[in-house]
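Running log. JK asked me to keep both predictions on one page so they can be read side by side. First protein, sequence followed by its tokens:
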Amino acid sequence: MGLKDIHNVYFIGIGGIGMSALARYFKFIEKNVAGYDKTETPLTQELVSMGIAVHYKDDVSAINDIYKHSESTLIVYTPAVPDDHSEYQFFMANGFEVKKRSEVLGIITKDTFCFAVAGTHGKTTTSSILAHLLNETGTSFTAFLGGISEDFNSNFLFKGSAYSVVEADEFDRSFLRLYPDVACVTSMDADHLDIYGSNEELTKSFNDFVGQLKPGGKLFVRNGLPLKGTTYGIDDDSDYCIRNLRIEHGTYIFDLGTPETVLTGVKFNKPGRHNLLNGLVAFAMAIEAGSQPYRLVEALETFKGVQRRFSYKIRADKFIFIDDYAHHPTEINAVFQAISEMHPNKKVLAVFQPHLFSRTKDFAKEFAKSLEKFDGILLLEIYPAREKPLPGITSSWLLDMIENENKKLIEKGMIIQEVKAQSPDILVTMGAGDIGLEVPRIKKEFEYAN
């Protein structure tokens, strides 16, 4: 089924960040769009406000009849949906075209010049920076983002169709559905071992992804990764390199070396060395779209960020509240580095919600080492997402491994009273589960008290 044959698109799991971007796209190109999700969220409410019908009960009878014509309806589902989901089973049993989100993304982007951002960390921020750079330089492009860009207040952006910007997600080997013209790999840390079984299999999958570059395509690789490509890094021999880095009034200032020139006095406002690297590779990729380096330098300085990626919710003299999506030890380390560099000698309290029983089991020691660096740790129960509990794998078990006397296992409803009791200089909430839904309540409680 080609795009021109599709009149109706039904999403199973429409509230996911990647799924909702596709839903926005199909609505934008004037298809009929509807979907199911198990939970109502601000994101699904926004889809409804756009005229997209969403229901929250797994019930075939709740689906409008126009989506029950197999010859004109595309069904898009997320791998997080269980096989026994009745709506999924209905469409499978009745001959519908049923595709994963990644397959649909591949179909949409195959006739464009495709930029694909891969890596176990940094995909959303890097692709959002790239979209911002292309937008600021007047480039024709469409972007599908894995987070809500603070520059566009959306996870979908249509500014033309010459180029496309997508995240190449390694989960479930989804990125093997893409055939990019330009790609980058930001990181290859062990993750999703419930899918891959071993880090060696994950590495093999990244190599397979690189092999899917179109003929004449270009690969950007963070220096030190076991892949061949144009390298980028900080204070090293990379093809694209940040040097002479300093901080002035909370802003990074540096020189940016490219294969052709050195640009001096470049400014970037998002804290953390990881974000500097994300900005650097986005800059390098935007060069491939023909953007002028000096215009990209101007655009880098104005990048606002992505929701839940080192997002300052409160930034007062006596109290700072930061929210981040960090759900892997490497990401927690990156958050700690950014806070320590931008706000040295401050008392930092971390609230962390582990994501997935399998990930908690696979990286328990690493999580403990990452979390114990903070002055205090408030640990929430594990967010299961698509998983069933594993025997013995609990937040209490993880808490026992953390070598820090100021640690506590709490319920989400206790966060505010615990923060008040500990009175930190900086509060940081981290996790990929539903902890983000607590952020507005926390912000409201503390923003007028400081």
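And the second, directly underneath as requested:
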Amino acid sequence: MYCILIDDDAIFNYVHEKTIRNLCPDCSIKTFLSSRQALTFVFENIHEEVKNHAYIFLDINMPELTGFEFLDEVIKVLPDFLNQHKVYILTSSLNDKDKQKAESYLGLKGYLEKPLDKEQLMQIFE
């Protein structure tokens, strides 16, 4: 299994990586503090490193590209990206407009509030 965490908050990335590792010790996990670096990684490596689908957990409010801008850029180049990978918005935003915007992305698997817990991950990984 392959997981990508994209969040400008190092503490949340650390906590989420540990939570995933507790459930899946053999998972490959890649973390990014920069949405722009994550975008570059996706364009350059996603097809080579990820043979099947990846689980991608994406924050909304980030300085370089918001989570929505990240998705827009990926979809421009890789239109089937949301159907090929399991992408979740993972945010502390309780803004209804953010949730509505997330629902407009066909293929997005969910809108989750931080922090991820073991029970949520167990359901996601089933």
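Observation for JK regarding the second prediction: The longest helix spans residues 35-49.
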